[in-house]
Amino acid sequence: MAGVAAAGAALAACSTDDKTTTSATAPQTSIAHRPEITTPAEARAELRRGNERYLKGQMVHPGADEQRRVEVALGQEPFAAILGCADSRVPVEILTDQGFGDLFVVRVAGNIVGKSELGSLQFAVEHLHVPLIAVVGHAKCGAVDAAVGVAGGGAMPGGAVDDIVNHILPAARKAKGEQGGDLLTRAIKDNAIQSRDQLLKDPLIAGEVKKGTLEVVAAYYTLEDGRFVVLDN
């Protein structure tokens, strides 16, 4: 954790330098464009409201204009961190109707938790004080589909993709022993839950969860209907 703190301090110092340089030319305005979100419940509610706006075709595109862009140049205060898939069909800011500075998004195929992903989320917790981390799996995920194939006896895809598949394999094997729905959907949801549980084992993240200042949830996004839901288990 000493290494994480040192790296975070360096990043925070860079952020401070940026503020000093930018403030000479940018207006000193508040970076808040909505009531402040500080609790896990408030963060979950805002993601839900944003997705509802998206589903109804009533998006307001909060904080997506020039003024907001200039405001967040002074510093960022995202209300949630998202660990999502790199799939081009899952742009989290759009499907939850958020804007500049609202979400700290980490995207990687299969929404897995590797060292870089964990480090990024540790930074979001320790230095940006996000009250919520959401791990978002999505329908028809190709990375999970590859892992399901390997779990069923198929060959590894090869190259660096093997590392991604190996992260997902435990969830794919678990899904094979479960009932209800199709195998791929079960595996996608189990993989999101698996990544959530891996994050909860991290001492820094677990400590904030224990204090009640942070919540870590798994979620599922359906490509066809655009619905973003938090998984119960």
TrEMBL record:
Per the record, which residues fall in region Disordered? 16-37
Please state which protein family the record places this protein in.
Belongs to the beta-class carbonic anhydrase family.
Q: Which Gene3D superfamilies does the entry mention?
A: Carbonic anhydrase
- Role summary: Catalyzes the reversible hydration of carbon dioxide to form bicarbonate.
Full protein name: Carbonic anhydrase
The record's InterPro entries line, in alphabetical order, gives: Carbonic_anhydrase, Carbonic_anhydrase_sf
User: Cross-referenced Pfam families, in alphabetical order?
Assistant: Pro_CA (PF00484)
Q: Which domain of life is it from?
A: Bacteria
What is the native source organism of this protein? Gordonia defluvii
Q: Where is the composition biased (Low complexity)?
A: 16-26
Matching entries from SUPFAM superfamilies are given as:
beta-carbonic anhydrase, cab
